[in-house]
């Protein structure tokens, strides 16, 4: 049951069946694979090394062979699970993407944004952002972790494609992002965006500008009685967040579409970080986690999406607008499925406002049968919850001077299942304090040490960590990203 819940609550629709992986249930066994199983490209592993890394007894910790393979001297380490699945279902990706301003003709309304994005996806039919020729107008750094459930396929696919979706959505608003003194226009005319911005390059778009031509607005052809408009302030930061959110949706839609052509199954969580124009954008869909450690202070940078949070969301929806759930669910949850013989009796319950259980309520006939069901974990299994659960947090990187020990730590749930935020922060801070500040390998060694602490040592009673606690038997993947290098980029 727990596996089904984790698969659903942070699913990236579908996945790619990894050959020979136990636990994968192909939806189309006769269809070709979209991407083969592999470990992160930046590890530079041979086929033999990938095979050796899948030892569930020894559980070797993999680290970078060359620190220059990742930007900012980023540290990375991973370890396979203790036998839960044949393959390591975690995946990681790190890229530096360079975007160029779109040509004027590509911004015309005659070609839809979706068509422009699809033509540039890395499917062998277009040019990826990094391969575009011409001047480089915008650069962003990208790190991501994906934790697969019920197979490694979705994690592999998302690690290959999600950053391209993000880059292509950012290109849609590049003209605005590259003009910091301009506010995003509320409404665009038939003119291309490039032309609009060039015509207003020396002044910000005022409210009157964005409303020009509206009935009753200043300068309109026929002035009608004065009307008042409420206009929300739209920041450039919110455009980046929107680009990330829409990229996640596109990733979801692409996998769903390709199910018809490829052998796809499984799901995954997603945790990504993009550094753009002096800010870190941390997007999370699932139970992975990110924290910043700055001068010893722990700053949480992700909101986890769990069965409990999704339960409350769905129960609230069942309470406010039950028709959206087909009038099939009640907003109350009972400890177990209600039986017909229990109608009229009093049973423990909770609703969307509660995390604990409350006294008793009388069970009505509407809580029994298939027409109206109480919400339990089995009801969280849905086709797609990935776009719904994404949350993006922003950290103003350029506003702080960071030291060599100030880091952003990303980890899949295998790390956080056994170590708290404070334990992780203290472990990394203590390790870095004993390293040469000029040693570029210090962050990789810190990541290795952190994974080792969470995995523990194999003893008679299983994997054990400090104080003889159970170690993590799950896949563990960790990035340690030094923030001082980010200051040098801005």
TrEMBL record:
InterPro entries, sorted: PP2C, PPM-type-like_dom_sf, PPM-type_phosphatase-like_dom
Domain PPM-type phosphatase: 73-483
Cited Pfam families: PP2C (PF00481)
Region (Disordered): 104-133
GO MF terms, alphabetically ordered: [pyruvate dehydrogenase (acetyl-transferring)]-phosphatase activity
GO CC list: mitochondrion
Highest taxon of the lineage: Eukaryota
PANTHER family hit by this protein: PROTEIN PHOSPHATASE 1H, PROTEIN PHOSPHATASE 2C
Stated name of the protein: Protein phosphatase, Mg2+/Mn2+ dependent, 1H
Species annotation: Cyprinodon variegatus
């Amino acid at each position: 049951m727990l596996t089904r819940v984790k698969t659903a609550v942070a699913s990236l629709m579908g996945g790619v069946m990894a050959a020979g992986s136990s636990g994968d249930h192909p939806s189309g066994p006769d269809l070709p694979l979209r991407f083969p199983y592999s470990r992160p490209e930046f590890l530079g592993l041979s086929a033999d090394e990938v095979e050796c890394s899948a030892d569930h007894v020894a559980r070797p910790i993999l680290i970078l062979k060359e620190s220059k393979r990742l930007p900012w001297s980023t540290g990375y380490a991973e370890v396979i699970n203790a036998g839960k699945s044949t393959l390591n279902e975690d995946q990681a990706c790190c890229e530096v993407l360079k975007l160029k301003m779109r040509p004027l003709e590509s911004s015309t309304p005659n070609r839809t944004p979706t068509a422009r994005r699809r033509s540039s996806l890395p499917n062998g039919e277009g040019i990826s952002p990094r391969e575009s020729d011409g001047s480089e107008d915008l650069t962003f750094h990208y790190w991501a972790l994906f934790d697969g459930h019920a197979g490694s396929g979705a994690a592999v696919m998302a690690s290959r494609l999600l950053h391209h979706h993000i880059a292509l959505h950012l290109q849609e608003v590049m003209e605005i992002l590259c003009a910091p003194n301009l506010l995003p226009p509320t409404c665009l005319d038939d003119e291309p965006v490039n032309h609009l911005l060039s015509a207003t390059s020396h002044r910000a778009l005022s409210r009157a500008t964005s409303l020009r031509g509206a009935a009753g607005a200043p300068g309109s052809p026929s002035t009608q009685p004065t009307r008042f408009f409420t206009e929300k302030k739209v920041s450039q930061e919110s455009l980046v967040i929107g680009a990330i959110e829409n990229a996640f949706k596109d990733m979801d839609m692409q996998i769903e579409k390709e199910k018809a052509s490829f052998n796809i199954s499984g799901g995954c969580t997603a945790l990504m970080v993009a550094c753009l124009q002096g800010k870190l954008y941390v997007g999370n869909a699932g139970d992975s986690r990110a924290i910043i450690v700055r001068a010893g202070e722990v700053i949480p940078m992700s909101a986890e999406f769990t069965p409990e949070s999704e339960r409350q969301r769905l129960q609230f929806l069942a309470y406010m607008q039950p028709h959206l759930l087909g009038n099939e669910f009640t907003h109350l949850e009972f400890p177990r499925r209600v039986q017909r013989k229990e109608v009229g009796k009093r049973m423990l319950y909770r609703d969307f406002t509660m995390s604990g259980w409350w006294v008793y309520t009388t069970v009505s006939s509407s809580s029994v049968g298939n027409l109206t069901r109480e919400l339990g974990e089995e009801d969280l299994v849905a086709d797609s919850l990935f776009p719904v659960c994404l949350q993006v947090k922003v950290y103003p990187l350029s506003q702080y001077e960071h030291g060599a020990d100030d880091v952003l730590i990303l980890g899949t749930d295998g790390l956080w299942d056994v170590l708290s935020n404070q334990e992780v922060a203290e472990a990394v801070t203590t390790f870095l304090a004993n390293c040469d500040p000029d040693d570029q390998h210090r962050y990789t060694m810190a990541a290795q040490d952190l994974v080792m602490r969470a995995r523990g040592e194999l003893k008679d009673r299983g994997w054990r960590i400090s104080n003889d606690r159970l170690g993590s038997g799950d896949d563990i993947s960790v990035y340690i990203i030094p923030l001082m290098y980010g200051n040098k980029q801005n």
